[in-house]
Task: structure prediction
Amino acid sequence: MIRKGMKLYSILFGVCPKCHQESMYQNTNPYALSEVIKMQETCSHCKTKYEIEPSFFYGSMYVSYAVGIAFSVAAFIISYNILGSSLTIAFIAIIATLIGFMPVIMRLSRNIWINLFMSYDKELAEKPEVKKG
Ligand SMILES: [Zn+2]
Result:
C-alpha cells in the first residue's frame, strides 16, 4: 500500500524526499543513539541537498511537538481505554512511550518537515545513479 512516490513512504522510511531511492540518514537504525540525527549532506542518487538552509532542521521541533502529542494520545488510549489501566499507569505509559520512541519521533519529525518543502520527482528517481568519484 505504501510505495515509492508517496510522501508517506519518505516520511516512514526516512528516504530522500525527492527520489525515494536512499536513506537520508547515515545509520538507518534510529536506535543507534549517537547517530539519531546524523544525516547525509546530499542524496547520492539525485544530489538533493537535505539541509536547504543553515539550521533548516530546527523547524522540525515544531513538528516533533505534534508527533509527540500523537504518540501520547495513542499511549493513553491503549493503556486507559483498551487495557483498562488506572490514570496513574496511563500517565506513566505516556512518559515511557515518549522516552522509548524519542529517536523515532525525532526522525519522523525531520522526515515530515523536509517533506513539507520537497516533493517526489519521478525524473530524478529514474535517473541512472551517478557513480561516486
Ligand atoms: Zn535523492
Remarks:
- Residues 16, 18-19, 21, 43, 45-46, 48 surround zinc ion (CB under 6 Å).
- Residues 60-82 form the longest helix (23 residues).
- The radius of gyration is 17 Å.
